Recover the amino acids of this structure.
């Protein structure tokens, strides 16, 4: 676990301004739960 931290930061930090929004956070939480 934790190997995706950098890619998550790049994804959320490098996308459009105003992100992450609530939908992005919901998708990220769902994705993270799928990794376990």
């Amino acid at each position: 676990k934790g190997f995706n931290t950098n890619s998550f930061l790049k994804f959320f930090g490098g996308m459009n301004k105003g992100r992450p929004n609530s939908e992005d956070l919901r998708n990220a939480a769902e994705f993270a739960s799928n990794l376990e």
